[in-house]
Fold this protein.
Amino acid sequence: MKSKKVLEGDLSFLNLGDLLQLLSTDSRTGVLFIYNNHFKEPGIIYIKNGNPHDASADKLQGIEALYSLFGWISGHFEFVHEDVTRVDCIKKRMMAIVLDALRVLDEGEITKFEETNTETIQTIPQKEFSSTLKGPFIEYSYVVDEEEYPDGAHIVTQGRHGNWLWVILDGHVDIIKQTDNGKSMVLTAGSGSFIGSLSNVIQPDKTRSASAVAHGHVQLGVIDTQKIYNELSYLDDELKNVITSFDNRLRKITARYTDINAGINKFSGLPENAKPLINMGDNVQNVFKIIQGEAYIVKRTGGGDIFLMTLDCGDYIGNIHFLGLDYEPSTMSVYASDNLKLEIIDIQAINNEYDKLSVTIKNIIEYTAMCITLTTKNTCS
Amino acid sequence: MAIFNIQKREIECKIVYYGPGRCGKTTNLEYIFKAFKKQVTGEMVSVDTEGDSTLFFDFLPLGLGKIKGCDVRVQIFTVPGQQKYSSTRKLVLKGVDGVVFVADSLEVRREKNMLSLKDLQQNLKDYGLSISRIPLVMQYNKRDLASEGLPIMSIEKMERDLNRQLKVPSFQASAIKGTGVGNTLQECLKMTLISLQRELKWSQ
């Protein structure tokens, strides 16, 4: 048989595992040369009727050489069709070799040699998302359907009614808020992020607090709202109130962020008669519910006190651990109106109730905390 | 994406057993290998991957006919569950034609099942495949453990957890005893071949 180069190509396009399978399926006979610029000599695999008989790579021979070649993950290959007279010193079947070599590669026992590219690669500049949020792990069992939106499509419009919840499976979504003072983009949500809030499920008469617009092509998973609704409806009222109040914090901080972006002074807004209630760093373990009056959350900075939001009747003050929000008392101060009345709540009971929630609801709460934290950071900076 | 081997007049397709670690994928394959010995060509390749071994063998589905005059040869694989085996997983899932999802009936594995199914969806998506379109069969394995007094989930519960949206054929099984193993494979083969046939007609 005359030697003839019959196949050549790039290993980064067709890797060695695929290449060997291809030659094996077609029961090819010949010699495979692999070139990688880390090595002077090419790696060689002798193949007869689709099965490797011998190999050499750098200083190695036989099966060891063959395995090490799986680490040459980029480079050039050539297959030369010719008779192979080598002694068959590799007894394993092709698929056994491929599977085992990949296992060893994945376990990190084969050194990887990627070709250093001498040509300059033009990298496509990725759009910088200044405030991109990635959500937690998506629990597939809660996704009932998938929807696709083209760039610019409105998924949710501020002010409209609706209690649907989505999770972003792929792509990015811009969250845009409009207030009397102006309009601004609050953040860009990435995969795993949720669109819609639990309070929209708890209180279906609530309108959407911001718009969600597809940024490029977006794939969304529709969350089983009925399942979430059912789960929430069995909850103790107190926990439901905690969740709603927590969602309100996100609404409030988002509105505040938008106002400040529109030119409102971030140090303004705190009523003059407000008195300090909790100072940043105070050791306050209790969680309080507001029965009457108002409380104001303020971030003390070197430049002055940044007013963040007003809490009123039904809202909670204090650190509720499971919400995962680092606010008062550790990083925020709280001021009170003259007529403020508080009640201490049994946080342990709420905690126990929270533990029973499904991962998806916990994820949505966790995601809400991430949104509040990020928006607060953007508001203060 | 089945491979046509024109020389051998053979169509080679791939069925993958997927599921959480220790759910019984390996036991399924070991049983098939033993019980359908005549239909297995060549030996079983077993690679020791952490948690589960990864298995592979060639299988000739008998009695399911030919496609366009070609014999059908099926490669049957299991996938290593551990995250780090990404190259192996990639190789195994590339060009997969049919999937058997083996779920563990043990109550304590409930979340593992759901995570694994989600993982399957993501992995398939990475290859441009959709979990709702690929031939897929569910197997609720380890049903026999109930008789040993271990808490297992009801079929209704498992259907609700895993199959409510997918609505694919599902089978109860006890792979260790061989119950349900053949039915699962047979159904998956049937679905895979039907889907291949349909694909071929469309491409004409």
